[in-house]
Amino acid sequence: MTTCFASKWSQVGCSLVRCIGNSTGLFRPPIQEIACSSFLSQQIRTFIQMRTNLKVVDNSGAKRVMCIQALKGKRGARLGDTIIASVKEAHANGKVKKGDVVYGVVVRAAMQRGRCDGSEVRFDDNAVVLLNKQGEPIGTRVFGPVPHELRKKKHVKILTLAEHIA
Questions:
Q1: Which of 9, 114, 126, 162 fits 142 for a cystine, CB–CB 3.0-4.6 Å?
Q2: Contact, 111 vs 120, CB < 8 A?
C-alpha cells in the first residue's frame, strides 16, 4: 500500500532526481520515463461508482465488496464518502456474511484528490471500512494508511482505529 503525493507542477511518473542528474544540463527525461508517463496518462482513474469492487480494510469479516450506490453526488464517491455495498467475499467466522448489504466509508481511492497545500493524494487501490446503520465501524481495527481528510467528513472514529494516518 503506497501513497503517492505529487505536486500540481510536477509530472506523474517522472523521477526528478534522474532528470536533474542528466549530464547535458537540459531538463529532458530519459526515453523510458516518457513511455512510463504516457502509460500512466492512458490509465483513467475515476470515481467509485456502481459495480466497483473495493477491498475491505477492517476486521469485520468481509474481504471484498461491490458498490451498489454512492450516497453523495451523481458522479460517484471519493475519499470520505459513504456508499452502500454488497459483500462478495467474506471470512467464514466474520461478523458479516457473503450477500449482506452494508454501508461503508471510502478510506482509499485510486482517483487523486487535491489538498489545501497544493499537493495531491492518491492510493494504489480502492478500499472501504464497513459501517452499521448508526454510522459506527463494524470492525475494531483498520489496516493500512488512512487519509486525514476523513476528519473533515466527521469520521473521527475510523481515524482512531487506524494504524497509520497519511
A1: 162
A2: no
